Amino acid sequence: MLKNFVRNFCAISVAIAAIFLFAFAHASSGTLELTFLDVGQGDAILIRTPTNEKILIDAGPAGAILAPLAAELNFWERGIDLAILTHPDTDHIAGMVELLKRYKIKRIMLTGVQHETDWYTAILREITRQKIPVVLGNATTDLELGGGVRLDILWPEEILAGKYIEDTNTTSIAARLIFGETAAVMTGDLDLASEKLLLQNTPDLHAQILKLGHHGSRNSSSAEFLAAVNPAIAIVSASADNTFGHPSPEVLAKLPNAEILETSKIGSIHFTSDGTKWKLEN
After folding, report:
1. Per-residue model confidence as pLDDT tens digits over 11-52
2. Among 226, 264, 270, which residue's Cα sits nearest to residue 247?
3. DSSP string spanning the chain?
4. Gyration radius of the chain over CA positions
C-alpha cells in the first residue's frame, strides 16, 4: 500500500510540476496570439499577449462562445483581463451575459451608447453588480497590453456615453493591434460612411490581417478603406448559409490579392506573431 501511495504521489507531483512549467512558459512566450473564434453568425476575437494578458473583442451570439473560448484557454484560466464590446448588436454581445457568470472579467470597454435591449441591459446590470471597471472607448484611447503589444482604438471619434444613435453599427469600436512589424485591424460592424471619416483622421491603417467589417457585408469595406489597410489576409466571421449573404461577393472581389479565411469553413482561425510576421496555426 505504501509503495502504491508513493508511486501515485510521485505521478501527481510530476503532473503538477508539468502544469506549472507549461503555465510559466505560456506566460512568457514572447509570442502574440490572435484567434478569430468560430461563433457562427457573429464576432468574437481573442488576443493573448506575450505576457499572457487576455483580451476579448466581442462575445458572439448567446451561447456560441463558450466552447470555442474554452478550447483556446487552459483549464485553469478563468479570467479575461479586458473585454471590449464594439457595439450593442446581439450577435456581438449576447454571449457576454454567460461569460460574466463564468469568468472573472477585470475590465470592460464599451462606447456607452444608449441602447435598450434585454441583452444589453442584462450586461450593464451585471457590470454594475460586479463593480467591473469600465473604459469608454474612443479614438483617444490607446492601450499598452504588455510585451510590446499595443491596441490603438481608431473609432468612434468621440465619447458616446449616454447618446442615442439610431444605427449602432456606426458607433462600432474599431481597433488596430500592433506588435513589432505585425498588425491587425478589426472594425466590428463599421459602415461605409464611418470608414470614410476614419480614413480622413487615421494616417496609418496598414495591417497584414483585416477582420472584414460587418461579416463581409457590402455595407462595409469600401475600396478606399481596403486599399489603406492593404491586407494579405482577410477574415470573415459568419455562419455557413446565413440569410444575409455574408460575405458579399462584391466585397471579396475588391480583395484579389488577399487570402480569404472564413470561420464558417475552417472554424476558429488562430494566428501567432513573433513581431516580424504572422503565422497561421490552423
Report:
1. 444 344 334 334 444 455 799 999 999 999 999 999 999 999
2. 264
3. -HHHHHHHHHHHHHHHHHHHHHHHHHHT-S-EEEEE---SSS--EEEE-TT--EEEE---STTTSHHHHHHHS-TT--EESEEE--S--HHHHTHHHHHHHHSEE--EEE---B---HHHHHHHHHHHHHT--EEE--TT-EEEEETTEEEEEEE-SS--TT-B-S-GGGG--EEEEEETTEEEEE-TT--HHHHHHHHHH-S----SEEE-GGGG-TTS--HHHHHHH--SEEEE---TT-TT-PSPHHHHTT-TTSEEEEHHHHSSEEEEE-SS-EEE--
4. 20
Which residues on neighbouring strands pair with residue 54, listed in sequence order? 48
Give residue for cell 470573415: 236
- Give the model's pLDDT for residue 28: 55
Tally Cβ neighbours within 10 Å of residue 73: 15
Instruction: State the amino acid at position 120 in one-letter form.
Output: Y
| Integer angstrom CA distances of residue 35 from 46, 47, 54, 167 | 5, 6, 11, 28
Q: Are 54 and 72 in contact (CB under 8 A)?
A: no
CA distance 227 to 230: 5
Judge whether 123 and 100 are in contact, CB under 8 Å: yes
**DSSP per-residue codes, 26-52:** HHT-S-EEEEE---SSS--EEEE-TT-
- Residues ≥6 apart with Cβ < 8 Å to 13: none
Closest CA to 188 of 252, 137, 149: 137
Per-residue pLDDT at 5 exceeds 90: no
For residue 173, give the C-alpha cell: 469600436
What is the number of alpha carbons within 13 Å of residue 6 lying toward its C-beta? 3
- Cell readout for 276 is 516580424
